[in-house]
Amino acid sequence: MISRLSELASLFLKLGITSFGGPAVHIAMMENEVVRRRRWMTHEEFLDQLGASNSIPGPTSTELAIHIGHLRAGWPGLIVAGISFIVPAVAIVTAIAWAYVKAGHLPAAHGIFYGVKPVVIAVVLQALWTLGRAALKTRTLVVVGLAAVAAVFAGVNELVVLFGAGAVMALVRIVQERPARANGTIARTLLPFFVQTAATTTAAPFALWPLFGVFLKIGAVLFGSGYVLLAFLRADLVERLHWLSEQQLLDAIAVGQLTPGPVFTTATFVGYLLGGGPGAAVATIGIFLPAFVFVALSGLFLPRLRRSPIARTALDGINVASLALMAIVTAQLARSALVDPITSVLAAVSALLVFRWRVNSAWLVLGGAAVGLLVTLI
After folding, report:
1. What's the DSSP call for residue 104?
2. Exposure check for the chain: N or C terminus, fewer CB within 10 A?
């Protein structure tokens, strides 16, 4: 057990330091490490964990790390993997927040991200290729995957796409197995809608407990990307409580997206701006705590769900929809990453290295950062 916990800590500390590019890249790097390099789980098991992570509120890549830790080393592994993945990003963001408070603006890091973004495109494409071959097992799943891509392009909410894909696949299985009772069973398999209501209150003086409450609520109900996080933070911290300015909020989101590790470390930056070190700690614990709770609960039910033919088929649909979301994110990343011949060549070389020789994605990311800095200096 000690050996496995040490392995988990080493792996996720490394990923927490090197996983630039957002959740899609984190997922790709985890797949590379735990499925292809270490063979801790099969592609199907990894997809199950990814589907489960996408089906609960909170930061998907962090929850995936927690799921992997639980599968590898039980409850201690759940805690070690999650904390190890979060801590490096929290430390980096705290340092940036300190510099921000001192200088009043963000430290320049354009060179690093100029070189890293093209590399992560190749990393995500490799993961999509590998996971897609495992997930698209039937023609029906292929159709559901294409429909999920179309739905996301049309602006359908990610949660609706995920659970819609699961509901469609469950419906197909029900009709195949029990056509006579299909209608009654379909009604029982539909998932409830998640609704968040925000109370309208006047501005309140800053305090640590209300700060913890804000981020605990966000961590418990938020599905979606960092841009969705922006909407939640703006509603609570800018409009309702008036603790942040619009510019401070945008800077916080930028830090969360441009630093390695979970995008939700935006909370760390905001907490430091509002309350220094204690504020950073309170905000970080508040937004990440629900992820550990939700993963612990879902870990109890996932094996049972997999023994149910209908639930297993629904989870297959959620897995395919998860890959569709990753594909959309990859396309969006590519548009912003491949901006000139240098970045295009960097992406092509990275793709060759990761597809042909399976070079460790962490080394590719570090290499991309070095190239970006060099080009910027020249």
Report:
1. S
2. C
In the chain, where the domains are located: 2-194+289-377, 208-288
For the stretch 201-209, contacts whose Cβ atoms lie closer than 8 Å and that sit 24 or more positions apart, written own/partner, are 201/240, 201/241, 203/240, 203/241, 203/242, 204/241, 206/241, 206/243, 206/274, 206/275, 208/275, 208/278, 208/279, 208/282
Q: Which amino acid is at 302?
A: L
Question: What does the pLDDT look like over 42-91, one tens digit per residue?
Answer: 988 898 888 888 878 788 899 999 999 999 999 999 999 999 999 999 99
Q: CA torsion angle for 59, 60, 61, 64 (degrees, to 10)?
A: 120
Residue whose tokens read 């300015």: 245
Residues in the chain: 378
Q: What is the pTM of this model?
A: 0.72
Distances (CA, A) of 210 to 216, 237, 242, 256: 10, 11, 13, 22
262: three-class secondary structure by DSSP: coil
Residue located via tokens 């009604």:
187
